[in-house]
Amino acid sequence: MVKVIFIDKNGAEQEVDIAGGKSLMEGAVRANVRGLDADCGGACSCATCMVFVPEKWRERLSPRSSDEDAMLQFSPHVDATSRLSCQIVVDDTLEGLRVQVPASQH
Questions:
Q1: In which element (H, E) is residue 16 found?
Q2: pTM of the entire structure?
Q3: Digits of tens for pLDDT over the chain (106 positions)?
Q4: Of 2, 28, 40, 86, which sits most exposed with the smallest number of CB within 10 A?
Q5: Which domains are assigned to the chain?
Q6: Are 17 and 35 in contact (CB under 8 A)?
Q7: Which residues contact 19 (CB under 8 A, 6 or more apart)?
């Protein structure tokens, strides 16, 4: 299990254990992380699972796909740190990852 910390709009942290091979979104939904609705269930077709990933962690992730970029265009607060949590597959290199859930999703 990999520990990932989700931070809400007020700075409250929720630590979640996610099995390797699962997406951040799957772990967040299982743990009832507030602000990650995941309306499409991980199909990269809704952008309701967006998170902000700090720069020091972004190099450990695969690049955003064109589908992910297209979906992020629908988010009101997208920036260079924005990722869809359904597109981030957890592995041991992400132990301790801290992601921010946008205020617009709360």
A1: strand 13-18
A2: 0.92
A3: 999 999 999 999 999 999 999 999 999 999 999 988 888 888 888 888 999 999 999 989 999 999 999 999 878 889 999 999 999 999 999 999 999 999 877 6
A4: 40
A5: 2-105 (3.10.20.30)
A6: no
A7: 1, 2, 27, 90
